[in-house]
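Consider what follows.

. . .
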Amino acid sequence: MSINRRNFLKTTTAVAAGSSLALPNISVGAPASGKKLRVAIIGVGGRGRHGVGMSKGEEITVVCDVDAKRLAGAKKQFPKAKGYQDYREMYKNLDDFDAVVISTPDHQHFGQAIRAIRAKKAVYCEKPLTWSMSESLQLAAEAEKFKVATQMGNQGMGSGGWRQAYNYIKSGAIGDVKEVHTYTGTHGGWFKDGIRTPEGSDPVPEGLDWDKWIGPAPMRPYKKGIYHPAKWRGWLDFGNGALGDWCCHLLNAFYKIYEPGMPISVECINQTGPAIDTCPKGKTIKWEFAADGKRPAFDAYWYDGVTKPPAIPGLDKGRKMGSAGSYIVGTKGICWVMGSHNQSATLVPEAARKAFGRPKDLAPKSRGHEREFIAAAKGEIAYNAPLSHFGYGGMLTATALMGNIAAQVKGKLLYDAKKQIFTNSEAATKLMSRKPRDGWCVE
């Protein structure tokens, strides 16, 4: 298996119950001072273009994509870069790069990122960090073990919205947290939920290596317009639906403010249909977080797709909640974080905001989400200075992905963060990881 459970538990004990890490240190394997960072890009289409853009000013020395046509385009853009269709081959030539940027489907993230970490290469990985809970927790632990610069690509971490909320909450505007409600609507039709695997197969497009696209997931025939390109996220073998698409943006506001560690339970309390081949068209997830001495216990709720959140109590007449956002209910008030990437925040109602006035500026400053990763990879700042380093991003992703397990296993699931199991459900624990296809294991 990709994750040996005994070794996994030993490695991840340090991050199982919380997200705090060791004191900052310079990244292992950083290039010599003043030199450009040599970057390997895995996945050059779609979000891969963002990876190329964020590496501007550095040196792209390796490009990798399972689609030969896309790879040829990248090679034309970067003629000095080495090109690969198989990322495993790329890792046989470690002297060619200092950092890796991963922009592939979720099911490929772990194998690509863990190899970088163990080679002591800095690694930036698009959200969600991994396909499964166990993979996220292991990346979190091993990034700290090897003291490698990392960053998860939830770009909203660089925005001002959650910082506004942080300032209000840490200044005492809403009192102690009681519950959090986070919501996102439909996803524009670029992937589908609530459908079953189609029968038959279609010819694989010229240049696409379908076996390598499937990677560690169970093999299935290619079907035109169903999985690739950009249709994979709703399929449970490859992605995590709306929750995987938006969790690391939307949940980030409350999770960064409180850094609550892993929940003690999760339950899918409402969904439109079963999660079999794809995610349901809508669901409501409830997590319970234990008290930690600094704050009381609280509950967090997630609503996606056709499932709608309750209206924000006290919201001023005429104001609309929008299609995505989050609101934090406290003992003394409510803080509303607006937009898919935490673009802004305010107190509700408007009179409460005016009465409280301007909060203290307490939130950590942003160097720029991508820029702080580059700086950490070059040793200019601490390896764990990026705000979405894997120690944090792994915990956030693992928390979120519990929700999709709950959509597949009914009832309230009790979670033990130290043992990293669901204590009342073997079925749920099994869904934390899976055995990869032959040839794709990472020991």
Observations:
- The first strand starts at residue 38 and ends at 42.
- Residues 1-8, 13-24 have pLDDT under 50 and may be disordered.
- The first helix runs from residue 5 to 16.
- The two ends are 7 Å apart (CA to CA).
